[in-house]
Structures are given as C-alpha cells and as structure tokens.
From TrEMBL, chain A:
Keywords noted in UniProt: ATP-binding, Cell membrane, Membrane, Nucleotide-binding, Repeat, Sugar transport, Translocase, Transport
Lineage: Bacteria, Bacillati, Bacillota, Bacilli, Bacillales
Pfam families associated with the record: ABC_tran
Matches recorded under SUPFAM superfamilies: P-loop containing nucleoside triphosphate hydrolases
Domain annotation ABC transporter: ranges: 6-243, 264-508
Domain of life: Bacteria
Gene: gguA
The protein's name in its UniProt record: Sugar ABC transporter ATP-binding protein
InterPro entries linked to this entry: AAA+_ATPase (IPR003593), ABC_carbohydrate_import_ATPase (IPR050107), ABC_transporter-like_ATP-bd (IPR003439), ABC_transporter-like_CS (IPR017871), L-arabinose_ABC_transporter (IPR053466), P-loop_NTPase (IPR027417)
Phosphoprotein is among the record's keywords: no
A GO molecular-function annotation: ATP binding
From TrEMBL, chain B:
The name this protein goes by in its record: Xylose transport system permease protein XylH
Highest taxon listed in the record's lineage: Bacteria
Gene from which this protein is expressed: gguB
Location of the protein in the cell: Cell membrane
Its biological purpose: Part of the binding-protein-dependent transport system for D-xylose. Probably responsible for the translocation of the substrate across the membrane.
Amino acid sequence: MSDYILEMRNITKTFPGVKALDDVNLKVEKGEIHALVGENGAGKSTLMKVLSGVYPSGSYDGEIYFDQKECHFKDIKQSENVGIVIIHQELALSPFLSIAENIYLGNERQSKSIMKWQETFAESKKLLERVGLKDSPETAVMNIGVGKQQLVEIAKALSKNVKLLILDEPTAALNETDSANLLKLLNELKKQGITSILISHKLNEVSSISDSITILRDGQTIETIDTKEEKASEDRIIKGMVGRELTSRFPDRTAVIGETIFEVKDWNVHHPGQRDRKVIDNVNIHIRRGEIVGLAGLMGAGRTELAMSIFGKVYGKKITGSLHKNGEEIQANTVSEAIKHGLAYVSEDRKTYGLNLIDDIKRNITLSNLKRISSNSIIDENKEITEAQLLREKLNIKTPTLEQLAGNLSGGNQQKIVLSKWIFTEPDILILDEPTRGIDVGAKFEIYSQINELAAEGLGVLVISSELPEVLGLSDRIYVMNDGRITGELERGEADQESVMRYMTGSGGANNAGLN
Amino acid sequence: MQDLINLFRNNIRQYGMIIALVLITALFWVLTEGIIFKPLNITNLILQNGFILVLAVGMVLVIITGNIDLSVGSVVAFVGAIAGVLMINNNVPVLLAIVLSILVGALIGVWQGFWIAYIGIPSFIVTLAGMLIFRGLTLYLLDGQSLAPFPDSFGVLSGGFLPDISSSGELHILTIILSGILSLVLVYMEFKNRKTQLQYNFEVVPMWITITKLALLVIVINWFAYQLALNKGIPMVLIIVFVLIVIYTFVMNNTVMGRHIYATGGNKKAADLSGIKTKRVVFWVFVNNGVIAALAGLMFASRLDSATPAAGNMLELDAIAAVFIGGASMAGGVGTVIGAIVGGLVMGVMNNGMSLIGIGIDWQQAIKGMVLLIAVGFDVYNKNKAGN
C-alpha cells in the first residue's frame, strides 16, 4: 500500500535518563481520522513534537516520510510548509486580536509589509464558513468561547493549506455540544481530503469517529487497530492501554488503619476564569488514620483542582462544601490556616509551586514552618541546620551540602526536598500530587518507602497519580475521578488496571451508584 | 592557590563587585593624583553619598521581592518639604518634626503598598504615579520656592560628627578606638562562624584564606578610620548608614521576615503555597521603603540646609543602579544589603572622583549609565554561562 500520507519509522527519543520513545512506528493513511491513545506519559505528545519539528531532526533516531518523501524538520515552520499543523491543548491564540488577525498571524496577507486588511477579512470569512463559525472575523478572540476558539485554530490551520491536522485533546475543555460539533467538523474535513490525527482520552469519541487507532504505552507502539476490520470497543482499547507490568517494585507494608481523620463533604468548585463551569462536582471523600488513599484519573479530570481547592482554597471560585477533621468541621480559607489544621500539599509541579530554585536546600525545607526553628521571629540557624540534616538523612537527599541551591539538584532529589518541607510542618493529612513524576526508579522506591512510613506514623495520605501501577501498588483504597466527579471507589482487593481505567475514562460500571 | 581560584569562581558575583570597586577607586586615585584618598575628601565622599547608601538599603528589599520603587526621589523632596514647613514655618521642635516626617514617609509607603500588594497594580506604575504625585505635592507645599534655613540642631543629621573623648591633639581618639573594637568583633564573628561550620561538617575555606581575608579587611577598616580621625572623626551619616547595614543585614539573614522576603521574590507561587502571606510581605516592604526614603529626605534637607522643590531629582535611579550593580536580579529573589552598599559606593566613588577631575555633569551621567550596563551585562553573561 502506498497511500500512506505519513510514516514514522523506528522513532527513538531519549531525554537524560529517560527513554521517552522507544522504536515507535506510526502509519497514517491519506484521508483518515487516526486516533492516538495512551496513558499520561505514554509518549503521545513527544511523538507529535518529533513530527512537527519542535524536537529538531537529529535530536532523535528514526525516519519520517510525509507524502513518500523523507523529511528532516528543523522547526515548526518547516513542518507547516509541507502541510502538517498541530493544534495544542492550550490554544495558541492572542486574546486581544480579532479572529481574522489570529488566523493570519505569522502568515499575514500583505504587500511589501503593508497589511491588506480587505483580503484578510474576506479570506477569513471564507475559512470561517468552512469550519461553520458564524461570528464576524472582526470579533476579538477573547469574546468568543473555548469551543469557537478551537474552530478558529482549525480555520488558521486551513489557511496554511493543511494536509495533516493534529489535534491534541481538542475536546478536553469543551462541553458536550461543542465536542459533538467539533467531531462533526473533523468528519467534514475528512470528506474534503484532510487527514487528522486525534489525541484524546475520551475513548467514546475515539471509538466512534476514528478509522484506525494506534495505542502507545511507555514510549512503545503496542498496536494499531483498523476499525474497518475490527470494531474497537472501549474495552478493547483499554486492554491495549493498560497491559503494563508492575515494573517499579513497591516496598512491603502492613497497613494499620484507624478511624476517619479527614473528610470532604459535598465539595463543589467552579473554574476561576469561566465561573459557570463546574470543575469539581459534588465530591465526597474521606481518609482514615494510617491509610493511603489513591486518587486516579486522567489529565483534566480535576484531581489537582480538588486538592488545591481543599488546601486553603488556592484554586477555584464559588467553593461550597465542608471539611472535617476528626469529626469536627474546620475552616481552611488560606494556606496558613490549612497548615495550622495539619494539612500538607505536595504539588505536582515542584518547580513552579514547590521550591524556590534560587535558594538553598535547608531554607527550602524550613520555609513552611519557620516557627519551629525561631524564637521571637529570630531564626536559630544552627537548629535549622540540625533539623534539615535529619530530614536529609531520613529521605536520603543526595547533595554535597545543605547549602546547595535547590535548582542544581536532580528531579528526584528536588522531590525529596519538597517532601521534607512538608514533613517538617508535622502534618496529619498529607496530599501528594504526582509524587514521582519525572524521577528515576531508585528515587521512586525511596519516596514510596517514605510514604509508607508516614502512613505507619498515623498520617492520612492521599496520593494523586496518573500512573495506574503506582495507584494500585500504593493504595489501600482508590477513588477514581472523571470530569470533576468521583466515578468510582475501589478497595485494594477489587481494583485492577482495567477496572480503574474504565472509571477513569467515564465508561464506568454499574457499581458507582450511590456515590454521587 | 587552587582553593583561591575555586573560591573566586564560586563567588564571582560578590567578589566581582568588590574588585570593581577597588579598580574604580584605584583608577580615580591615579586620575586625581591621590586627592580622592585625602582625609578631607574621604569625609566629603561619605557626606555626599550617605543618602544614596540609605536609599539603596531600602531599595534592595523592594527589588528582592521582585518590585521596583521609582518614587523615592520625589518622596525625598516631599519629606524635606514637610520638615521645612514644620520646622521653619511653624517652629515645631526638631525632634518632633523628625518623627512626624518619618511618619509621613510610612504613610506614603502604606499608600503605595496598598495599591501594589492588595489591588495588584504593578509597582512600576504605582511608583511612577507616586513620583509625579509627590513631586507635585512638594511644589505645592513649597509654592515653588526654597525654604531655608533649618534650625542649627537639624544640621547634625548630615554635618555632625561623633564628639571625641579627649580634645587633645590632631588625632580623633574615639574614632581609632571604635575601629579597633569593630576589627575585633569582625575577627571574633568570622572565627565563631567558622567553628560552627566545622561543627556541622560544612566545607570551609582553608585557614590561610580566612586569615588573609580578615587581615585585608582589618587593614582597610583601620586605615579608613585613621584617615577620618585625621579630619573630624566619624560623621553622623556614617553612623546612620552603619546602623542600617547591621539592622537590615540581620533582618534579611536571621529573621522570619527576611526569609519571607527572599521566598516571595524567589518564587511567589511556591511561597503562597507554603503559607506565606506574600501580599502582606510586599506591603510591609513598601512601608519600610517609605520610612527609609523619609530618613534620606531628612538627611538631604539637612545637608542642603533648605527644603527645595528640586531635591532628590533622579535620586531613585542612583539607588536602583546601586542595587543592580550590587548583584540583585530584576526578577527578584536575589540581592544583599551589603551588595547594595558596595554598589552604592561604586556610584559614590564615581560621582566624587569625576567631580574632582572636573568631568561635567553631562559626561558623569553617561559614564554612570555605561557602568550600570556593563555591571549588569557581566552578571547576565556569567549566569548564562553557568546555565549552559
């Protein structure tokens, strides 16, 4: 068969210490809708970055053929020139400019550097008709909704004579109607001969619209399902996505679980920007003393939003519901109140939310609880060193001195600093958001041991993770979230990768009745 | 020797600054044929630049939080005008007038801090507005004219000297004694520090480097004090600056507030999530800077012995330049009080030296601009190199 528009052969891409793509093959036929699915971190985005030239030719191994010609893209511009356009999950539109200006941004209708406005607007109008958007091309992008902005992005792609359109999670931020419209549009474009690659976590969409589905797992191609030959049900896709072995080992532990220490009741949170959008929808969870509770869900399910809204209402607007500790209702409207009530939150993004990278290790560790090392507001530096030294040894932070800047350490050691920082606040409830993201296997094991130890000391621990083996390996009990709701609660014994994934993708079972 | 090279390489920022100061001073020593080191000139250098150093101490805190304050020059003029109106027009006692003026500075800080921290207007805008507002109010208060003279006792703030214990002889004895005490305190603290570091198994520099460093420091301090003693002794201005350095270095290094200031500038989001009330931190840093600017305003008025509408013009830029030459970062989180002082001295030595060799105000400005650009450019270059 020679009607492949795109062939990626034996693509291998390594980052320091991690093999993100391992011998990946992807073949896309001309004029089809090809879905790319896999867990978070399976390598979907990396593969698309290789294709579009974000990672320039030479920084990876393997070959790319587009329209039967071998390609060596050095940057995005070159891949766009041959007709490959990628639309990212975070839209790249300039909010204050009009729709027409955005469509031709970087590709202006001009004559000798003078803008040709008539042509810009007239051509935009035609493109908007093709994507079914009725707004005037002079409308500022900030005044239209996310769904329409997505259509503007597609119009922009069309203006570049796109042959292969790549959409990364296009429906993640859209409501049902907008999503349905977008999928309809993709079918329209298909009839006009435009090939699409669709990256999506929403398996019902994938199975209804795509002609073939490629499944990635841990940076490897698992299989490609041709839906013309084989009906790809959601279960069928899930089986391909999760067949992962439990490679990273988990330390042994016998849980001693006590009474309920922390409870979240009827928790509702709205999006800070779009106030009518509910991000967390009537969530009820509880954690018991000595218990490790897992919180699973795909990207955009609302796990981080849930954690950050609980932790001093850092995220979200119009928050309703109540928090209870040891049976009594508590108020935690600011971070310092939350800390006072014994809450601790280790963020998923340690560089943005966890550490001051230009300050040293000991100061990072003590920052959240300077009271413990000071009297009358004056810091006892010797005590600081002693305390930091204890935590450094306990967590095995590998560093020549405690005065090393946090920014100079590896991801695993940085994560240990953030963990130390929160252990230093002597919490009762510890929320860990993706505690092992981007760190090596050895450090992972050490962090797992630490989590177990903390639970054994009587803390209630909530672990948010996208990695199913991690959730399954660590937790005594698992909550699963999808689209802002708790869709499932599973005991350690009854949870396996497939059952959890089913709840994660919203194609849940019957036994979630009574949870919502 | 390898130790010395490593030490230098790891601390290129701090040492680079000091070396720049030494080089610039040496340059002017040659160009002025030694006049710059005459006892009288050293005293003058301090008197002329004292308020830049004072402003730099307040400004470095603002810049560490990732903000900027463009209004201090106007605040200097405004507070001078307030002091003038109080003391000259209304015969308010000097001490009370000083307290009231400082209070006005604090209120200005409250005003600006409120808009910046709690309303969220960028500090550049708020203090640019403040620059215009307080210059305008100064003109209104003074009706466009200068007010003079101040009561004699107010002159002590800028022109006073520490009295001597005995009035005999050419040499100012107390100055020599104080510099001796300071030397001993420095030596004691350095060794105490070293002992603690060894106790906690920290890497310490070899003994000979410590001793050489201390020896150099002690020589410089005592030579400097000796020159002052040959003239009229220690000026009040130097005492004020010294006290501010000690207090603010301690606050920044050893108190919870200092930690919160660095953390806010270093990574505001992480600081917020660590339970630090970053808005409150920024607010108080601006209140503090209002107080410091008021102090500088009083020193300025006292030195001119008049309150003038043009007082402190462009002074904010000298203070900001001093802080950046002293190694602070525009992005916040980095900077030290000592660095800002060294940066202020670089500016001061250049002001003084260029005046001595008769360079006009036109070229003085241009050359100072170039020095700022080169100093910060060197810093950025080093950082990029380290990043690769």
